[in-house]
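Summary of Year 1 activities. Much of the first year was spent building the evaluation harness for sequence design. The harness presents a backbone, in tokenized form, and records the residue chosen at every position. We chose the following record to illustrate the format because it has been used consistently in internal testing since the harness was completed.
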């Protein structure tokens, strides 16, 4: 059977695959559209597998709530251009709905979760990898249930915050705390969460960068401890000066609303991922020489 533009268009509408991929699939299957669908799936999996070792450090972080349950997750891609792709953003919407309407609370469960389309999130990411042409993967998920839930999604789609409060805090005040978390990027909710390793590492840096020449031992120790306390306060949400009123800490602001903050999640795209810097000019030159 001849491979016509109409046949290519029909296959593309069925699979959302690229025009050239549809043409190749139909040529490989002598114009049999059912076999072409299978061909695309099989070759899509191969393409996705080849991209499995690539570094995906861009993408989208997104939070959503229905008032009773809140979720936040990060889906990575290889370039930031993908966050502007309609298919990618449609996948983000589908994942958010599925997570919000489930009881999944970890990555393993999320990957196996079925979407409205019938495929699992893991399968949908593999399919998106083949269709979009970049490695797409769900990196992390967090959820909360009950209490007062507040979320914040930054306009650049790179930072999302999910908070869970207990008490009488209003939605407006809870949202202000969300915005503070997004802007200031605290590593910890409270000082109780700070590991001894982190404290030791910071103290080592402080000792290496502080001139204590001529200072008595007790004075020197006081200076070092004071600098450490200041550093720990900078990375602890409840001890940070509140951005809307720097005369009080975030902890005191929340307490003044007769509330407590139980859980904090701040997802920023790519944090903690070692990015690979590619010299495209050298890469192309090497290909030409080859």
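For this record, the design step produced the sequence shown next.
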């Amino acid at each position: 059977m001849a491979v016509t533009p109409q046949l290519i268009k029909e296959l593309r509408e069925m699979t959302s695959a690229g025009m050239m991929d549809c043409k190749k699939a139909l040529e490989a299957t002598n114009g049999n559209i059912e076999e072409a669908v299978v061909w695309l799936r099989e070759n899509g999996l191969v393409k996705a597998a080849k991209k499995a070792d690539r570094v995906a450090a861009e993408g989208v972080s997104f939070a959503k709530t229905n008032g009773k349950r809140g979720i936040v997750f990060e889906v990575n891609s290889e370039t930031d251009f993908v966050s502007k792709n309609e298919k990618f953003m449609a996948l983000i919407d589908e994942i958010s709905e599925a997570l919000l309407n489930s009881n999944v609370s970890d990555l393993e469960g999320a990957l196996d979760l079925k979407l409205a389309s019938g495929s699992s999130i893991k399968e949908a990411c593999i399919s998106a990898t083949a269709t979009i042409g970049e490695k797409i993967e769900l990196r992390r998920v967090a959820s909360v249930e009950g209490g007062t839930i507040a979320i914040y999604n930054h306009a650049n789609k790179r930072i999302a915050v999910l908070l869970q409060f207990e008490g009488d805090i209003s939605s407006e005040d809870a949202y202000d705390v969300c915005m503070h978390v997004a802007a200031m990027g605290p590593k910890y909710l409270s000082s109780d969460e700070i590991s001894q390793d982190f404290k030791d590492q910071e103290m080592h840096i402080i000792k290496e960068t502080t001139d204590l020449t001529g200072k008595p031992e007790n004075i020197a120790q006081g200076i070092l401890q004071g600098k450490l306390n200041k550093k720990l306060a900078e990375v602890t949400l409840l001890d940070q000066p509140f951005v809307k009123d720097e005369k009080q800490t975030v902890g005191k602001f929340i307490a003044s609303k007769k509330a407590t903050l139980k859980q904090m999640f701040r997802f920023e795209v790519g944090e903690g991922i070692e990015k690979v810097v590619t010299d495209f000019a050298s890469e192309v030159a090497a290909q030409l020489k080859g």
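The mean pLDDT is 87. Quantitative recovery figures across the full test set are reported in Table 2.
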